Amino acid sequence: MNYTISEVAKRTNLSIYTIRYYDKEGLLPFLDRRGGTRVFHENDIDWIDLICCLKNTGMPIKEIRTLIKHCTDHNAVLEKGIDILKRHKQNVEQQLKEMQCNLETIEYKIKYLPEMYKKFATENK
Question: Is 72 exposed, middle or buried (0-12, 13-18, 19+ CB in 10 A)?
């Protein structure tokens, strides 16, 4: 099935501008272009979903472009693409650990903030 850029924007919750930006940045080299019009297929939407996931988890556009090149180029080296994803996964896991630690600190402060305030108020009379 073929999709227009407007249909893809609705399906992915991205703006048309964002999809055009991704294309301009070389993140959509596999797009079918008919008479200057971008024609999207189901597989293209899967790639856009991956791009969004990687971008939302902090992967730079340059690295996403490299990953896509390794996975879609006619001289594709799939192992290099998989290595990029594995490294990114490790980075995201580390970020999750740090966020979990921060969340625990916040939960602790919520629990003990009244006591901390009382102590502060007493000391600063």
Answer: middle
Q: Is residue 68 part of a domain?
A: yes
Q: Give the DSSP H or E segment for 89.
A: helix 78-123
Per the confidence metrics, is the pTM higher than 0.70? yes
Tell me, yes or no, whether 121 lies in a domain.
no
Angle between helices 16-24 and 5-12 (to 10 degrees): 110
34 Cβ neighbours under 8 A, 6+ residues apart: none
Among candidate residues 65, 59, 33, the one with its CA nearest the CA of residue 47: 65
Whether 13 maps to a domain, the answer reads: yes
Q: Give per-10-residue mean pLDDT for the chain (125 aa).
A: 95 97 93 88 95 97 94 80 95 97 95 86 79
